[in-house]
Amino acid sequence: MTLSSSATADHIYATGLRNQWHAVVPSHFVAPGAMRKVTALGEQWLLFRRSDGALSMLADRCPHRGAPLSLGKHLGDRVACWYHGVEVEPDGTVSSVPGLPGCSLEGKRLVTSLPVREVAGAILAYFGDEEHPEPAELTLPEPLTDPGADAFLCYAEWNAPWRYAVENLLDPMHGAFLHHDSHTMFDGDTTAKFRIRETDRGYFFEKTDQRGVNFDWVELCRTGVDWVDLSIPYPPSAGPGGPFGIVGMVCPVDERRSGVFFWRYRRVEDWQRASWRFLYRTLIEQRHWDVLEQDRVMLEAMPADADRRENLYQHDLGVVRLRRLYRAAAASQSTAGV
């Protein structure tokens, strides 16, 4: 468990929904035999790997005096607090108190340990609350598990609320303006009508009068982890593989910061896979980072109360639907009201 049920709905909405999985950081952030302090959902955590590569995620708080375990020592299969040497196992159990062997702390599970999984180069963790400590069922995005798809993970940290980053993805129309000078999103109409199409795992937000030209649709998927899927047409100069897809996830770091995960993928096999990977690394990747930078600049420049001083119109139906969904989820996870 990571959250008291007395937390308000506003706090949950600001720092991230619980009782589901979230991407936290890329896998390469934590090398074998190393540990790393991270912030996720407004809380401090310690990621550490044993020498065999097995990964654990603990609350960054020694059960003795509350000192950060991240300042301690990596002992191979456990960590030791720097302050008084208290040793903690990967599941949060205190294995040793060197200053007083046999004391009552030993053998007790006193540190929160989160379930973790590694997927396509990213570390996912389950954040439950007091009433839902067991991990929710997790169905991973198909493009990240399909052997016929080849994906590259791009990760960045933005000084913008996690909600703004997700809302940006549920707003296809911004591609025709903010990203107009992009090599893929320069074409198509700058006027459009949209619709919401419900699915058994979320909903599509899509243009009704244009398809396969620009950033024309996005699907929000809630499968134990929240993610989006979208497709952008690619010119022949970008090599084989057809449309270029993006799977996106957003980690709520805290109320003002977010970690954004974008897997850029194409369905390619054999020699086409090698061609796609070569073109991506040598030509396309930097263009994608340029597009991400445009998003970052815009979202970081928006005031903290931007979503309370708006005048929305039809293009914003996807964002409105998202907010209602997340507000309802935050309220259901809180017994303290707003």
Automatic annotation (TrEMBL):
Residue ranges constituting the Rieske domain according to the UniProt record: 21-125
This protein's record includes keyword Transmembrane helix: no
EC numbers: 1.14.13.-
GO molecular function: dioxygenase activity
UniProt keyword Oxidoreductase, yes or no: yes
Pfam families cross-referenced by the UniProt entry: Rieske
Keywords: 2Fe-2S, Dioxygenase, Iron, Iron-sulfur, Metal-binding, Oxidoreductase
Signal peptide: none
Protein name according to UniProt: Aromatic ring-hydroxylating dioxygenase subunit alpha
